[in-house]
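Re: your question about Sequence-variable mosaic (SVM) signal sequence domain-containing protein

S., sorry for the slow reply, the queue was backed up all week. Below is exactly what I fed in.
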Amino acid sequence: MFKLKNQFKKKIIFLFVFLGLLFINNKSIYAFPGIDLDVRRHQLEEELNNLLLELNNVFNNMSLDSSTRFNMMVAISNTIDTTNNQLSTINQQIIERDRCNQQRRNYQNKPNSPRRI
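Result:
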């Protein structure tokens, strides 16, 4: 029985480490062509909400011992930090995109714009 619990703990820790590495390696997916920044932001916000729910569920799960629960919470917390960083990067890119679009509209609306023929 003790051996099964130990194997279960190892498998859970391995799973969270694997998922964490998977999220870290996919952080540049928003830069691929064809992915809209607004869509990617929405995906990241949903992912963040799901991670927060998962963290809450692990925190309230009293069937796990404290060390396993703590390890799972740390893994989820690291994933949340990574997702927040990705979301921040996406928001910066959206702001820059909107700023460039506004400049382009301003140049087109000027009466003596050198770009206008």
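The mean pLDDT is 82. The two ends are 81 Å apart (CA to CA).

Happy to talk it through on Thursday.
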